[in-house]
Structure formats: structure tokens, C-alpha cells
Amino acid sequence: MEYIAPVPSAPGIILCCDCGAQIHPNPTNRCIACIRTRNDISEGIPKQGNLYFCRGCERYLDPPASWVVAALESKELLRLCLKKIKGLNKVRLVDAGFAWTEPHSKRVKVKIAVQKEIQAGAVLQQEFIVEFVVVGQMCDDCHRVEAKDYWGAVVQVRQKTDHKRTFYYLEQLMLKHRAHEKTLGIKPAHEGLDFYYTNEQGARQLVDFLMSVVPCRWTHSKKLISHDIHSNSYNYKFTFSVEIVTVCKDSVVCLPSKLAHQLGGIGQICVVHRVTNHIGLIDPSTAQLAEVSSTVFWRTPFNSLCTSKKLTEFVVMDTNAADVKRFSGQGPISKKHQVAEVWVQRASELGSDNVIFCRTHLGHILNPGDSVLGFDLRLSNVNDTNIDKINPDLVPDVILVKKIYADKATRNRRRRWRLKHLGLDDDAHSQNKDYTDFLEDLEEDPQYRTNVNIYRDVTKMASDDCESEAGEIPQVSLEEMLDDLHIGDSPTGGEAAEMMQ
Fold first, then answer.
1. pLDDT by residue (tens digit) across 68-116?
2. Could you tell me the residue range of the domain that residue 183 belongs to?
3. Which CA distances in Å does 393 have to 322, 387, 389?
4. 183 and 223 both lie in a single domain
5. Does 268 map to a domain?
6. How far from 220 is each of 102, 197, 229, 403, 478, CA to CA, in Å?
7. Under 8 Å between Cβ of 253 and 305
8. pLDDT digit string (tens) for 48-81?
9. Domain edge (last residue) among 404, 423, 456
């Protein structure tokens, strides 16, 4: 009889005690399939849930009452989904991520990997998907908007002038510094704009911003809406009234004698050459500069003798350099401007012998034959107490304010840039005279446009009309223009879908 020795089994291999499959030894002596059949570590964790989404403001509800902005497949949305899954504290979360779904399916799927020790030394890891249904629900802020009782504070910005160039400049400042993001709505009003906010804090932030960029003053009031006698709580609506100074760029003003002496002995009749957070003045006869803050202006107010809409067109007949005498204690003199003696004639009186002599600070850009805008004091009926106190022999006949480089159609054709807007229901975006004057101010003053975001106009960049035009018209350089950012219509469709594919 032959002895047949048993075939030794492979080292480290045992049979599953349930199904008999060959497995490596483990504390349970069962295969993975049998372990998962007997143990479900995801039991107690819901596999479905709801996400509440407001279509008005595009925010998700973060329980119990806050609303957050979260894009699809973002970290913020993943955090919100994991927060809504109950039972994760009983297992160890290993990994979590989004499973792709159709962007318009109103479904968000989160793939989760968890671990749990089922017995001593045996740790089981399991992956599963939790599906969330996006349910539409209007937030409290949008409810108040629909109920026409949405605002808790309003900022009323006003300026008593005959043009809107200041508000065009203010619009660009708000866009650059994002000062309009918390507003519920912006509505045009007579002589200004109204900004609506949910609470008083947002309105005060706008008032502080306005005080830092334009010379103005403000007052506020509040109105009681409701009162709960049990909790002693009050509900108010706040109104902030902001008044911007009445003088604007290219205005001719007459300063009080005391204020002119405090500003370094500057002449009383000046031209406003710039308005930022202060009023920049220049004496046309000496090119002396002065700055007036909003505090000084409201303490010693002065009015405009003439605004930019009332200027008269003159033609330069001859120019000569003028000698300017410096006095001790005199304020700073502009290095950009040059004082000149100019003989001009009204454009409507060309060919006559009526030639007017004046001194101007525009001698560095004026040549015989140029057109210039000025204020004719001889033919104007000025009602101002400050100018009545000046010796008539010291009052100039004409004050030149601004050079005319070309007609508006030519300058608009050569303009290769554009501005963004707030989307107001107003004529601020139309090509009216006030808006084109504002664009010309940006072209002529490099320092004035440092606070404005200027974008390239792609439609005019490719045209050759701008290159064919010749002349000395001021232009914005290409280095100062920004490239506009174009984003797809839907952040989760189109481009996003192509990236995932």
C-alpha cells in the first residue's frame, strides 16, 4: 500500500466560514461579500435629502435661518450638504465629493466614503451616494422685496446742478470699489439717486464711502414702523440725506475775500479744474492752485457764477506769454499750466472788430485759430454778493475755461474704450451731452481717470477709422485700458460641462 501525503494548502489562505471562498485570514474569518451582507455601517445615514434654494438671490439655506452663496460643486456647497447628513458622527468620514449630475436636473449627488470598526481589529470601509433634491424657497429678503417693504434704510444722494457729470463719476467710483454690492436697489430721483439697504449698517457704509470720494455733507432721520410692547423691540426705517457741493468741474466761482486770503492770497475769481474728495481751484490770471475741503466749503459756502452748460465759444486770435509776479506767502503755482495773454473773439462775431483781451492759465495748449469755451462777464447778469464787493476794474471781461479739440462726433468715433454701468433705469447710459462731456473730461485729464476702470472697446479696436484720424485730440493710452472678462451664461453648464467631459 502506498502512502499518499496530503497536499499542503497555500500559506496564509483560509476558507470563509459562511460561503467557503478562499480568503486571507482576518478577525471575522469571512470574505468581504459576507461581511457586507451581515454588516451595513451606513445604516442610519439617510440616502436622500433636500436643499432649499432661493431663485431671487441664488442662495442656499444654511439651517436654521442663514442663507449662503454657493456655486455647484464648490466647497461651500459640499460643507452645506455634509452638515445636513445626520449620523456621520457615528462613523469615520474618509472622503467626500460630488458625483456628476445634469446641471438642470435639480439634483445634487454626494459620494461619501466612511469607515467603522465592526469588531475588535476589523474595520470596514463603505462607499455610498446621498442624493439631494434642490427645492425652491424664497428667502426673507426676497419676500420683503416682493412685498414692496424690503428696505430698512435709504441713502438719498442729491446735487443741485443742471447736469449729471458728478453722478457719472460717482457711478464709476462705486463700480471700482464695489460699493454697490449690498444695495437692494438703486433708483434715479430728481437731482440725484436713491440707494436702498436692508439695514442701517449698509447705509452708513455707503455714506462713509461718499464722504471719502466727493465733498459732501449728510443728515439722517428715522421713522418708527412697529413696536412690540412685550419684548420692547422697535422697528425703524432710516433715511440718510447726502448733499454734494454745487460746484463742479469747469465751473467759474467767486470766493469770499476772507477765504481767498486763507488759501494763500489766491484771486477771488477762480476756475474749478478738478473735483475729487476736495475742490481743486486755479486762478486763471496767475495759475495759482488751491484746495477746498468739504468742511471749509460748508463753513464758507460759495456759488458758481457759470456752469459748463452756460459757457460761450470763443476763437483765439493771438497769444503772448505773460509775466507772473510772485508774492511772499503765495500758494503753490501749477507747473502744468502756463499763464498767457490772449486776444479772443466770440465765434458768433467772427469778422468784426470786437476783440477781447484776457489772461488765461491755458497758454500751454492755446494757439491762434483754436476754439475755446469761456465765460463772458461783460454780457452776463451775475447775481452774487461776493463779486459785487470786488473792484469792477479788477474783474476780467472773459474767463477761458476749456479748449475745444474737435466736435463730439469725431471724438466719439476715435474713442476706443468704454465704461461699465450700474444698470440704472435712466438715461445715464445714453449718449447725451452730459455723458459725452464726462468722457471728454476723462480723456483730457490723466489724473482724473486714475480712479476709473476703463475697458477696451473690441468693436472699435479693429476699425481703421481711429488710425486715419489725425490731430491733437487727447486719447486714453492702451496701457490704461483693461481687458473685459467674458464668462459663459451658466457657471455649471456650457464651459463647465465641457471641462468635466
1. 888 888 888 999 998 888 888 888 888 889 998 888 889 999 998 888 8
2. 151-244
3. 19, 12, 12
4. yes
5. no
6. 50, 14, 26, 41, 44
7. yes
8. 899 999 988 889 998 888 888 888 888 889 999 9
9. 404
